[in-house]
Amino acid sequence: MAFIRLDQKAYEHNLALLAKKAGGFHRLICVFKNNAYGHGVKLLAPIAKSLGVNFIALKNQQEALELQGLFPHILILSHRPNGDERTDFIYALNDKEDLHKFKKGTSLHLVIDTGMHRNGISLDELEEVYQNACDLGLKVEGIFTHFAGADEYDSSFFVQKQKFQLAKEKAQKLNPNLLFHSHNSAALLRCKSLDEDELCRVGLAQFGYSEYNANLQKVLSLYAQKLSSRVLQKGQSVGYGGRFSASKDIAISTYDLGYADGLFRFDGTGELKLANGEKLLGRMSMDSFSCKDLGDEVCVFNDARVWASFFHTIEYEILVKLSPLIPRILC
Ligand SMILES: *Cc1c(COP(=O)(O)O)cnc(C)c1O
């Protein structure tokens, strides 16, 4: 059966590196949304906890319930308020119109829109929304923002940083105990050091990917196992549509991983390479692909950037699509 290997040492190494940069494990908010970016949250979250991480961020309440009790602080980023909020989680306020929909007593972090214009409230609305939240019996415990271009070399990152600085000054006057956070992986790794008064939300860098730090180590590798072998004779082709034909007799095998497992479908055009540099041959099927016979087990990728670049996307998308049904093992 196809499987995913998670390298525990690599993950610990990355978290230690990020914690050093952030000023300690206690200043990391590990973003574990979407099954820890496709890696496997059930296996990685306990490692983060054992290293001293006590704050994580997730997509929704369903994800949070799965890790309930493991961390004292769980921030839910994409919750639609419905009165069913729990006191053991913290919810992001994405839209000020939704304030009255939260259950009384709920803990909130206000999203400040400093320029991404995806969600949150503007700087001018901070005092009013804070006051409204208090009046509704909600507990505002922090404010945060998200950068639209932390990984791009233009001025927007600095403009947003400056706006958040102003937001922090305003917020400080409202309540000196509020928590602040703005940096994601790219922002943390490109800055000299994290502001003294901030936590930071690290996602992808935990798993070994960043153009700002070459010392991170990839955590995930994806393996497939052999289903069948044969000699493809000169002139014969393999797979749907016969997209690959042998120019001479070659030993090929079919392995048990396909687009139903969360991979993009390779349509047989171009050169898509496995971890050892061998090419996929012919179109990928729903549950399998073929290539030169490489023995019983083959590493499909240990660096998602190879597939990301082939499919003109980002490594986030390659990783997060990996089916949660593929067995994960820690090693
Ligand atoms: C996903 C996400 C992050 C993590 O971003 P990375 O680039 O993976 O570090 C941080 N903050 C918010 C609001 C997010 O949605």
Bound molecules: pyridoxal-5'-phosphate
Largest sheet, order of strands side by side? 8-7-6-5-4-3-2-9
* Average of per-residue pLDDT values: 97
**How far is it from the N-terminal to the C-terminal residue, by CA?**
17 Å
Radius of gyration: 23 Å
Element order, helices and strands? EHEHHEHEEEHEHEHEEEEEEEHHE
Taking pLDDT < 50 over at least 5 consecutive residues as the criterion, the unreliable ranges are none
How many helices? The count is 9
Q: How would you characterize the overall build of this protein?
A:
The protein is an alpha/beta fold and 331 residues long. Helix content is 25%, strand content 22%. It has helices at 8-22, 33-37, 41-51, 61-66, 126-135, 156-174, 185-190, 305-310, 315-320, and strands at residues 3-6, 28-31, 55-58, 73-76, 90-93, 107-111, 139-144, 179-181, 200-202, 220-232, 237-238, 244-245, 250-255, 289-292, 297-301, 328-330. It has an eight-stranded parallel beta sheet with strand order 8-7-6-5-4-3-2-9. β7 (139-144), α6 (156-174) and β8 form a beta-alpha-beta unit. α1 (8-22) crosses α3 (41-51). The longest helix has 19 residues, at 156-174. The radius of gyration is 23 Å and the shape is elongated. The mean pLDDT is 97. The protein binds pyridoxal-5'-phosphate.
